[in-house]
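User: I'll paste a sequence; please echo it back and then give the predicted structure.

Assistant: Echoing your sequence first, then the prediction.
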Amino acid sequence: MKILISADMEGATGVTWPADVLPGTPQWERCRPMFTSDVNAAVLGFFDGGADDVLINEAHWSMRNLLLERLDERAQMLTGKHKSLSMVEGIQHGDVDAIAFVGYHTGAGAAGVLAHTYLANSITGVWLNGARASEGLLNAHVAAEYGVPVVLVTGDDLTCADAEAYAPDARKVAVKDHVSRYAAVCRTPARTARDIRAAAEEATRLAGRAAPVDGGPFTVDIEFDAEHLSDAATVVPGVARTGERRVSYTSSTMYEGIRTFKAVTTIVSSAVEEQYG
């Protein structure tokens, strides 16, 4: 049994504001061990439940945040940027039996601690076939195309509620309760480690590849906080403006849909100026 962990940081234990997740800040250094603790707890739980192989895919920002030296030695970690499937890289090889979303968060425009979708700001909303889309929802559709179930989701309480829509059977662990985008009532690392480990052990019972789901076509609508960003996004083939600050595109598969989304966000981020956005 092979488990893939997609590890993001905004939904990690103790994380509540931008400096906690921005590489190079003192707060980021402080929060890296707590992020690593969450991920390692999931690793331990999956091995407790009978997993043979656990691969962690670093999915936050520089994708170089976790402390490898603090992880269980049975795990392996994929770290670094420029991966074909970004947050769910590794799922496409046909050997993954389940995926876990650890440290996830709600989507752009929604309530939630550090809520966003790929870009911290700039994007104010994303919709997939008309439904507001978090990173979890987008990535779950990619996983479904490979027949891989989402078995565990951790983050704030609103992230767990969001996951009910795309992974109703998955185990959920709230490591903090949302107060505002930059505030939360947080559990201690010792408590969240216990909770995540126990949930991961239970989640292994849900592992097992299923028939791939062909859910397409997928129409993705993206809303930006500035007009010039929608214009910049149309550099990507197939992306068209649908409003002053909105664009849309349709893909036959979510594999292509997430790759196009990655291209759009890369182009848009290069069009953002430091002070004016």
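Residues 102 and 154 are 5 Å apart (CA to CA). Residues 26-48 form the longest helix (23 residues).
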